[in-house]
Each structure stands twice: as C-alpha cells, then as structure tokens.
Amino acid sequence: MMLSFKELALNRQSTRSFSDREVELEKIKRICEVAAMSPSSCNSQPWKMHIVRPTYAKIADLRKACQAVGLNPFLDNVTNFIVIEQTFGNMKSKAGGFFSNNDLNSIDLGILAAHICLAAEEEGLGTCLIGSFRNKNVNKALNFSSLRRIRLVVAIGYATDGYEIRKKTRKNTEDIIDVIE
Ligand SMILES: Cc1cc2nc3c(=O)[nH]c(=O)nc-3n(C[C@H](O)[C@H](O)[C@H](O)COP(=O)(O)O)c2cc1C
Fold first, then answer.
1. With b meaning 16 or more CB within 10 Å and e meaning fewer, what string describes 113-145?
2. What's the 14 CA to ligand 1 centre distance in angstroms?
3. 80-103, pLDDT tens digit by residue?
4. For a pocket test of ligand 1, which of 129, 135, 150 has the largest count of ligand atoms closer than 8 A to its C-beta?
5. Do 111 and 36 touch, CB atoms closer than 8 A?
6. Of 18, 128, 150, 171, best ligand 1 pocket probe by most atoms within 8 Å of the beta carbon
7. Which of 31, 95, 154, 180 would disulfide-bridge 119, Cβ 3.0–4.6 Å?
8. Complete domains list, the chain, with CATH
9. Nearest to residue 63, comparing CAs of 83, 33, 42, 87?
C-alpha cells in the first residue's frame, strides 16, 4: 500500500540499527532516480550520488572515515552507502546565491538528501544521514581526488527486525510556525 507523504515523514527516522539483509541495487538506484527529481536553484542539480556497495574493496575505509573519535559506531553493520558529492551547478545559481548572499547549492543538496531518505522509506529501507566525516578521508576511501567536495554520506539498508519507530522530538509548532497576516 502506498504511504501518504505524512506517513512517510512520520515513519522516516534516522536508522541506527541495520540488519545484514542484502540490499537490492535496483532499489537504491530507484531511490537515487526519484531523488534526482528534487528541485534545485536554477535547476542547477549540483550533485552526484555515488552508490557504494558491499563488494567495494575499500568500504571499511569509508566506514572509518565516518567514525572518527568513536562517532557513529552503528556504521559497523552498514554495507551500503550513498555518498553525496557537490558538483558544479551552473553560473545562474552561483550568481543567484551571490546576490542573495545565500549558499543555494548547500540548500539544493539538503533537499536532495531529504528526497533520498523519504524515497528510501517508501522502498522499505532505513537511512541515516552522516555529516560528521573528514572529506579528505572519504575521498581517499573512494579513490577520488582530494579536491572533490563530499557533502553528506547516507547509510542505507534494512533496519533490524522490530526496530521501533521513535516518537519524534521536535520543537513546538507554535515556536517554529509564524503566521503573518
Ligand atoms: C546534515 C545532517 C547530518 C547528520 N549527521 C549525523 C551523523 O553524523 N550521525 C548520526 O547518527 N546522525 C546524523 N544525523 C541525523 C540527525 O541526528 C537526526 O536527523 C535528528 O536527530 C532527528 O532525528 P530523526 O532523523 O530520527 O528524525 C544528521 C542529520 C543531518 C540532517
């Protein structure tokens, strides 16, 4: 049964307990294809999604790059990742960002990441966005030049059986929603 957007948003949570169930490449590709429909400033699409599979020889290095100072220990059980790289968008979005003093390409990548997580939820896969990593070490793990700009790593896979949906901890709506009339 297809979940409504509200259900997807409520069910999606950061998964930090992954099972060893194999993840179908086709599913991850589908998720990336749907996420590629995300809006972006001037349609600049300043992204590339690298799907890292369990067979990749240096996957342990990628994991390690996201586990500095003991962070993210749950990644030990993660065998699939989507690494989000920022690429050159277009001049129009660069100019727009310059004039509005706004990092529009960072916003674009955040929206892409949100689409990935929600598309994964629809496919029955759990995700956890990982922001705490050393760019240099991720590039090294992927055999990329140190100049490439990795902005987020998404851990993706099946949650362990019985992994419960937590109650959301969020600010009060009256503190974050302001109606101006
Ligand atoms: C940009 C970004 C970076 C994040 N980095 C990490 C991370 O390194 N490790 C982690 O466990 N969770 C990370 N998270 C997940 C957040 O902690 C999580 O989204 C937040 O606490 C809300 O919980 P929920 O996702 O379960 O609703 C990150 C989330 C975002 C948006």
1. bebbbbbbbbeebbbbbbeebeeebbbbbbebe
2. 6
3. 999 999 999 888 888 888 888 899
4. 129
5. no
6. 128
7. 31
8. 11-161 (3.40.109.10)
9. 83
Does the structure show a pLDDT above 80 at 36? Answer: yes
Three-state DSSP class for residue 14: strand
The CA–CA distances, whole Å, from 140 to 16, 65, 91, 108, 179 equal 25, 9, 29, 25, 47
Check if the beta carbon of residue 157 is closer than 8 Å to that of residue 24. no
Element (H, E) at 151: strand 149-157
Instruction: Choose the residue to mutate in 10, 14, 168 for probing ligand 1, maximizing ligand atoms within 8 Å of C-beta.
Output: 14
Cβ of 14 below 6 Å from ligand 1: yes
